[in-house]
Write a structure and sequence with these properties.
258 residues, alpha+beta, 10-stranded antiparallel sheet, two-stranded antiparallel ribbon, 3 helices, 12 strands
């Protein structure tokens, strides 16, 4: 046998040995994987749950399910219970709030019923108080025109302008019911009081009102405060516009003031 032939046989034998070893390793690994990763038998599942296996048993949880996944699965039930408790607490709070509101309404009604009625019965012989102290800048005049400095013209005057500083309190000159609150171009924020028997009093150039429409107030109640003068009274300066009327006809407020 030549050296070349002997070398070839050695190589062939080596290849066969390596192939046999690789095949054996492959078979071994396949058997081990089947044993480790194989599905859990009904008998093992039954031992875990304490029940005997049967064809009608509840499907088993996968062996790979973790505790975290199990907790997540239970989370909806826990959230539902917490939501139920929260809803119950909110219902109790709502009931308590409604009960408090009803109680306050009842108390307000009781106070209104027991409060003395404010007479609103102005007559020709009634007298008012000055709504604030100050010099009369413009007089009432409906029988002849008077000069208005800001407008630089002569015109009739349905009311008086009482000089006062901005922020001065303006009081109701008599008992009355707030008939209207409007924004007027000439007199700014304007409050009209119904004094009864067709009489009304008007307060103009106000701010920060303390009254509302429909409210009946006694004499001396603060209606609001003197505001900056409108463009119709820039030369006169800050003042309260005050007017009276009877059945819609202008009346001289000075006749009803002390």
């Amino acid at each position: 046998m030549t050296k070349k032939t002997r070398l070839i046989r050695i190589i062939v034998n080596s290849v066969l040995i390596v192939a046999i070893i690789a095949l054996a390793v492959t078979v071994y690994q396949a058997g081990t994987q089947h044993t480790d990763d194989g599905p859990i038998t009904p008998q093992i599942a039954a031992e875990d749950t304490g029940k005997l296996p049967s064809s009608t048993s509840v499907p088993m949880v996968d062996a790979g399910t973790s505790d975290v996944e199990a907790d997540v699965a239970k989370a909806p039930e826990t959230a539902t219970e917490e939501e139920t408790k929260d809803n119950a607490a909110q219902t109790d709070d709502t009931a308590e709030t409604e009960g408090t509101a009803d109680s306050e309404t009842a108390d307000a009604s009781a106070i209104a019923e027991t409060a003395p009625a404010i007479p609103v019965d102005f007559t020709e012989d009634s007298l008012m108080n000055w709504p604030l102290e100050g010099q009369v800048l413009l007089d009432y005049s409906m029988d002849h025109t008077i000069y208005h400095p800001t407008l630089d013209l002569y015109k009739y005057s349905k009311g008086i302008a009482i000089q006062s500083s901005v922020g001065s309190p303006v009081m109701a000159a008599s008992n009355g019911t707030v008939a209207s609150i409007e924004e007027m171009s000439e007199t700014g924020t304007t409050v009209v009081l119904d004094l009864g028997n067709g009489y009304q009093s008007t307060y103009g150039q106000l701010k920060d009102l303390n009254v509302v429409v429909g409210q009946t107030i006694p004499q001396g109640t603060i209606l609001g405060y003197v505001d900056e003068p409108t463009k119709y009274y820039t030369e006169e300066g800050s003042n309260l516009y005050f007017a009276m009327s009877r059945d819609g006809v202008p009346a001289d407020p000075i006749q009803y003031l002390p």
